């Protein structure tokens, strides 16, 4: 137990030393495996807690991932452009997706960005509703870590709603 | 393709209905409008579906047309492969627009990926822009450096010019003063030589005159030596002159007789040219020359005022004639050689010190030397 009744608390170290652990298979795995885990987990969570609660859990998990990713993988970007460029390169390098910025207004904290060939959803069947709640949280966590103020990301187009790219409206939360 | 007006409208004829539906869709795709001729494909549900399809096609067309015209702000509610592809294109165009804006603001790190040949062309263009920017910045810096060097060179040139001008002015002053002083001494020497000759039968008187002539020659030698010292020292920079000291140094050669000299300047020092000593010599010499027999005292005092420090040289002699006040400092004016006060003003002005005369009738002569703040001190 790690305290407060918790058995496990995320830390970047828990991702392990892949080069040592997988000397032959290496650091990559097929997307289906990732999605298998992602959607079976969602299925079970939905059964247990319902769709709305599951979305919240996925958003929170994505948010935590975004913050950890920023802290452990992105260094210290000098400015917004540097942040975007670094993120774009990392997302491509890791096969997560192709990030593009459509609009940015740092003064008001308002952004529109898209992710194509998204790890989570690109190629999924059309369901009529957005599926990328984990991505929403991930983007919000990244933005919060970069700016130091909380952000909210909302997917407005998704492969699963019949679009070819996922589009997110990202806005600073005014308390 | 069958003509629209010849299309059977009987919903009970499936073939005719399907053809009509196709014709309607074709019209929307080709013309961008619904025929609106009251066509009914069948039941209400089918009619509604057809209207939704036609409406979606038209919305997609309008979305594509707006984008073709450069309007990337539109939203498209329609879903599906075609609408999705167009929205993906819109996303790419919006991103390119954003990138172009960033590049315009100087971020040449922007790159386009996964857009085929366009990516390579765009990225090459940005790399060229970045290199051009680096070149431009380098050239700007070179120009700035050259400009700065040129500015410094011009400033140095001006300083040299000013130094030369000042040096020339000082040397001219020195030559004038020396000429003036030596001429005064020669006049006196000439007079004493005459008296020596006239008293050939009186060895005691002659010996006294010889002494005076010796002193005059010593003074002339001293004045000539001063020009050498001045060339090596005074012509360069002003110095701190202790007023009491220079008065002590210049007065021994002057014929005070019963006149008392009082210098109440304490440790006052003024930042002035070395020739400043000549100014005090000249003022005291003038007082002795023109003060008259009733004069008993020459007094030098100093007082700090809001406008600087004022040194007053005042005597209780005959004073200055009313008509002479306005011309005292004019070159060539005076009972002696006419150089003294004009040269005094010139010497003092080298360090922005001002000399004026403000005697009052019946109270002797009074000169005021105003030294600006920062150019005097009491160490």
Q: Quickly count the helices of chain B.
A: 8
Largest sheet of chain A: 4 strands, antiparallel
Q: List unreliable stretches of 5+ residues of chain B.
A: 1-16
Specify Rg of chain A, calculated over alpha carbons.
17 Å
Strand content range of chain A: 15-25%
Largest sheet report of chain B? 5 strands, mixed
Quaternary structure:
heterodimer
Order of the strands making up the biggest sheet of chain A: 1-2-4-3
Please tally the β strands of chain B and state the result: 8
Portion of residues in beta strands of chain B equals 5-15%
Largest interface between protein chains, with number of residues from each side: A-B, 23 and 22 residues
Low-confidence stretches of chain A: none
Mean pLDDT, all residues of chain A: 93
| Mean pLDDT value of chain B | 84
Order of strands, main sheet of chain B, comes to 2-4-5-7-6
The radius of gyration of chain B is 51 Å
H/E element order of chain A:
HHHHEEHEE
In CATH, the homologous superfamily of the domain at 238-379 in chain B goes by the name Histidine kinase-like ATPase, C-terminal domain
Shape of chain A: globular
Using the coordinates shown, work out and report the CATH topology of the domain at 238-379 in chain B.
Heat Shock Protein 90
């Amino acid at each position: 137990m790690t305290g407060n009744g918790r058995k496990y608390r995320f830390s970047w170290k828990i991702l392990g030393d892949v080069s040592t652990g997988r000397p032959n298979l290496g650091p990559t795995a097929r997307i289906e495996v990732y999605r298998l885990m992602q959607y079976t987990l969602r299925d079970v969570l939905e059964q247990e807690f319902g769709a709305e609660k599951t979305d919240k859990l996925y958003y929170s998990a994505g948010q935590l991932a975004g913050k950890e990713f920023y802290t452990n993988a992105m260094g210290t970007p000098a400015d917004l452009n540097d942040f975007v460029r670094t993120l774009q390169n990392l997302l491509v390098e890791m096969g997560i997706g192709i990030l593009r910025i459509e609009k940015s207004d740092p003064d008001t904290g308002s952004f529109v960005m898209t992710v194509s060939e998204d790890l989570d959803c690109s190629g999924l069947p059309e369901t009529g509703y957005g599926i990328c709640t984990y991505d929403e949280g991930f983007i919000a966590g990244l933005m919060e870590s970069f700016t130091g103020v909380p952000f909210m990301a909302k997917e407005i187009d998704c492969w699963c709603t019949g679009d070819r790219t996922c589009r997110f409206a990202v806005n600073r939360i005014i308390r | 393709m069958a003509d629209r007006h010849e299309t059977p409208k009987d919903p009970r004829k499936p073939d005719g209905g399907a053809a009509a539906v196709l014709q309607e869709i074709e019209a929307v795709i080709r013309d961008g409008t619904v025929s609106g001729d009251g066509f009914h494909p069948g039941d209400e549900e089918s009619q509604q579906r057809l209207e939704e399809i036609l409406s979606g096609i038209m919305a997609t067309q309008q979305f594509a047309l707006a984008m073709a015209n450069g309007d990337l702000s539109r939203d498209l509610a329609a879903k599906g492969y075609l609408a999705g592809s167009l929205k993906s294109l819109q996303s790419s165009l919006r991103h390119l627009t954003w990138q172009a804006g960033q590049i315009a603001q100087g971020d040449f790190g922007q790159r386009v990926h996964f857009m085929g040949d366009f990516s390579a062309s765009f990225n090459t263009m940005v790399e060229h822009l970045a290199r051009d920017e680096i070149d431009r910045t380098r050239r700007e810096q070179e120009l700035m450096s050259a400009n700065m060097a040129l500015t410094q060179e011009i400033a140095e040139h001006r300083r040299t010019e000013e130094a030369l001008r000042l040096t020339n002015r000082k040397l001219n002053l020195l030559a004038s003063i020396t000429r003036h002083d030596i001429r005064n001494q020669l006049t006196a020497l000439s007079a004493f030589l005459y008296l020596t000759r006239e008293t050939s039968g009186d060895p005691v008187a002659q010996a006294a005159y010889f002494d005076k002539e010796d002193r005059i020659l010593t003074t002339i030698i001293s004045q000539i030596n001063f020009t050498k010292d001045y060339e090596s020292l005074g012509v360069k920079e002003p110095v701190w002159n202790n007023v009491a000291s220079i008065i002590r140094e210049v007065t021994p050669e002057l014929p005070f007789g019963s006149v008392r000299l009082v210098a109440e300047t304490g440790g006052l020092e003024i930042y002035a040219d070395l020739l400043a000593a000549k100014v005090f010599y000249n003022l005291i010499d003038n007082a002795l020359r023109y003060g008259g027999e009733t004069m008993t005292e020459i007094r030098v005092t100093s007082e700090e005022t809001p406008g600087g420090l004022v040194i007053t040289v005042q005597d209780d002699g005959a004073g200055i004639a009313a008509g002479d006040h306005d011309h005292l400092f004019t070159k060539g004016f005076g009972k002696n050689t006419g150089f003294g006060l004009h040269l005094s003003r010139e010497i003092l002005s080298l360090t922005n010190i001002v000399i004026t005369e403000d005697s009052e009738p019946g109270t002797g002569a009074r000169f005021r030397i105003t030294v600006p703040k920062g150019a005097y001190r009491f160490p």
